[in-house]
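Minutes, methods subgroup
Present: GH (chair), OT, SY

1. OT presented the first of two proteins processed in the latest run. Sequence and structure tokens recorded below as shown on screen.
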Amino acid sequence: MNVKLLNPLTLAYMGDAVLDQHVREYIVLKLQSKPNRLHQVSKQYVSAKSQAQTLEYLISNDWFTEEELNVLRRGRNAKSYTKAKNTDVQTYRKSSALEAVIGFLYLDHQHARLEELLQTIVEIVNER
């Protein structure tokens, strides 16, 4: 299967799960706290606003390869028929674009690059 041909919102769906799992593992091991506290902390990493800010930072630092930029564009421009919750459409599209790249890397078995991206996302959020 050619992962590049998948719908970008499908890639974003997968990327959302991958990012969420990575962040949960990170904060559980770091905080060793109660679930409510863990949930509050995880929102700092996985909210649409945080993802959009992270994406802007990564783009401004030329972090992505040309292939990943193509996935980003497709993810950002995809027409979603669900309404964005707690954010504006532009922020939602940026977060979907970042999730699409994560989903692409995961499904394309680019594990080293995926791990590099996930660790970079955590570092960027931690610096805020």
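2. SY then presented the second protein from the same run.
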Amino acid sequence: MDITCAGTNGYLRLHDFVIPFQEKVASFYEASSSRFANLALGCEPMPSEQKVTTDLQQEALMVRQFARLVASIEGNGLEPEKKWAITSRKTQLVVAWTR
């Protein structure tokens, strides 16, 4: 599954969003301040590919992060991090909007 987001200030395309082709590498394309090229034949600047590499599969990384968050709440008495609720909600909105 790919997700493409285009706006007035940029472009973002997430490739292999749900089930990646490679377990330890995720790639995406991004462009900022893009516009139509001369005679509207393409766009410029061209989107650049970015790659994120990890030491573990994404499922293992999610479990590790979740375990870290639970341990910090139970063991150290910390509050849940608000950024995860915000990030997951924004992701759900983007995915639902692109259907």
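Chair's summary of item 2: The chain has two helices and six strands.
Next meeting: continue with the remaining queue.
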